[in-house]
Amino acid sequence: MVNMDESERRVEQHIAKGDTDAAVKLLYKMILQYAREKKFSKAEQLRERLLEVDPMALNEIIGSAEIIEEGKSQSLDPIHMAIWSGLYDTLSTEEKNELYYSMKDAILGINQPVFLQGKLNTNLYFINQGQLKVIYQDKAGDVLLNTLGAGQLAGQEHFFSNTVCTTSLITLTNVNLKYLEKDALLRWKKEFPNLEQQLSDYCDGFQTVTELLQTKKMDRRALKRVKISDKGLFKLLNRAGEPIGKSFKGDLSDISVGGLSFEIRISKEETARLLLGRRINVAFNYSKSIPNIIIDQNGVIVGVYPYPFEDYSIHVKFDKMLDKSVIDAIQRA
């Protein structure tokens, strides 16, 4: 095993004595060692030093570059590469390595913010595992715009422009992701002039926050809501659709073929926010119509709106739409 600290001192000694050949040979040997150890950043630093010591040592300069790139290619995470094959398959080997090794890793627990509405965060996030919720906060409360999972991006709008975050991104489960910092774009301009555009083109294939907000407003207008006054029984569900915790009751407010809203009392705002994006079962027997209407639907909580005195309005989107005749019967009753 090469003693790297001692070797670096010897390189400087060779240079001081004017023995360039010896310095080049030792630098090349150290680069190979660092590449084998997957310490690519250090290997590249020494290659820059090699260029300074002897710009004409072409065999060593070219050979070390090839060895570093080959080492990088062999060390790419196969799971990540499979998830993002649609992006990496459009890149050259050098661009692929540059993109991958420009990313940083993050592992987050449940209910942790990735970025927050109104704050500055210019990172681009690549989700490898887990689920997250995209939340928009308006004057009325929190609205769930979308849930994201493996193979989806987040943050592309503020990565390619200079704007604050228009939404918040919060983890729903444990999450494994990679992220790219904005300063990578400046670094690429000289060595990888096409990489930014290729990445931008790939990001264009994903729905933007602006489009999500427009869709949400259309959803709100599209489905007719009917007032309803009754009690409902609610159960939170895990990802497999199984009930977790105890059932709780709430006062139904309105209903449409696509979902309903109900009111409950929650003492802590943070507890209310935790409900957003959670899966839920809704069950009630509406006895005011003839015959009785029995509702037993699974869905997701897409809105949490505070009322005075610790009351909250919870909005649920059904997995499957109700028949229009059900809403008509409730309206007649």
List the helices and strands and how they pair.
Elements lengths: L3 H14 L2 H17 L3 H14 L4 H17 L3 H6 L1 H4 L4 H10 L1 E5 L4 E3 L8 E6 L2 E6 L4 E7 L4 E2 L1 H4 L8 E4 L3 E6 L2 H9 L3 H9 L5 H14 L3 E12 L5 E14 L2 E7 L3 H7 L3 E8 L6 E14 L4 E8 L5 H9 L1
Antiparallel strand pairs: 1-8, 2-7, 3-6, 3-8, 4-5, 4-7, 5-13, 9-10, 9-12, 10-11, 11-14, 12-13, 13-14
Helix pairs in contact: 1-2, 2-3, 2-4, 3-4
What does this structure look like?
The protein has 333 residues and is α+β, with helices and mostly antiparallel strands. It has three domains: 4-74; 78-216, Jelly Rolls (Sandwich), CATH 2.60.120.10; 223-332, Beta Barrel (Thrombin, subunit H), CATH 2.40.10.220. The protein is built from 13 helices and 14 strands. The strands form two sheets. Strands 9-10-11-14-13-12 form a six-stranded antiparallel beta barrel. The chain has a four-stranded antiparallel sheet with strand order 1-8-3-6. Strand 4 (132-137) and strand 5 form a beta hairpin. Helix 2 runs antiparallel to helix 3 (40-53) and helix 2 runs parallel beside helix 4 (58-74). It is elongated. It starts with a helix and ends with a helix. The relative contact order is 0.09. The model has no long low-confidence stretch (mean pLDDT 89).
